[in-house]
Amino acid sequence: MTVRSRTAGEQTGLTYNPDYNSGSVEGISRIQLNVRDGKRLNTWRAYLKPRLGDGNLTILTSTHARRLLIDDKQVTGVEVDFRGRVGTLSAHEVILTSGALASPELLMRSGIGPADELCEVDIDPVHDLPGVGKNLQDHWLSPVIFTTGSQPVPMGEVAPAEVHLFAKSDPDLPVPDTQPLFFSVPMYAQDSAPNVQSGPVNGFTLQGGLVRPASRGEVTLSGPNPQDPSLVNPNVLSEQADVDALVASVRQCREIGRAEALSRWQPTEIFPGPEVSDDELEDYVRGSVVTYHHQVGTCRMGQDETSVVDPSTFKVHGLEGLCIADASIMPQIPTGNTNAPTIMIAERAAAVLVGSPLEGITTP
Known about the structure:
GMC_OxRdtase, globular, flavoprotein, choline dehydrogenase activity, Glucose Oxidase, domain 3, FAD
């Protein structure tokens, strides 16, 4: 299926790109995966697990950070819920790595964020930073699903998705803004309520993908207490340019799915379905769009008045003893997946924080 998916793309006019990390992403490629010995090589396996037992590393599980402790613009530690007991951890420096949804939440619960919005949920502002929780960005998917005949669709060697492509939804764009992905299984949009999809288990999917969105969302709080849920408003497809790009990506996926190279599986399109013409795809895209789980940007680094983090030191503007080193500091979402860029941020932050050259802070 991996080879035939690539061939199908080439049959529709796409160029094969043997290495999309070479400096040019455009074209159809085999996906480069973080896999070693048949398992995903995540940051736990690569960085933390080899250091278990080191005297300078303590890992607390079942521990929830409730708020930062702040004394006159100096962060002095963290209040935590440790297995049902509330206590404090003191430190001269706190490094926040909770991600694009939880990092701004913890800041705002600590009184760091847009002062007016904090007052609205009965939190006393400690440090007014208007950019906290703003600038939320994500990658977005809309599936084109084909059911198949009696011949089973083979799985990839290591993952259900091993082929993707980067393409421009408009030829006048400077760089690709879409990333369709090929899955050897039907990926029904089950999170797209009220338009939840379902269907046969035999089939394959070409996911239309938007990777350079113009829309911006936000993370806010619903109340002052740790148990009050945060509110995530992605503002998905609020800009017409995003709708147009995702529609173009879905249209391209339909074309590839009908290519001769995939005909041996007797594909029949069930979503959007033959009754939906290419000119009617906007409603389908708006009703089937789901997250790629690549949220970034809510503690944006920069030097302007709405930025949150200093890009040279990783320190939160206006506070001492607090740094952020996760995907929340990205000013703009990268065109590709966010895992490797987030690891790069962490390695660079580690080098800055310990005063080491960057090449000295790498995976064991």
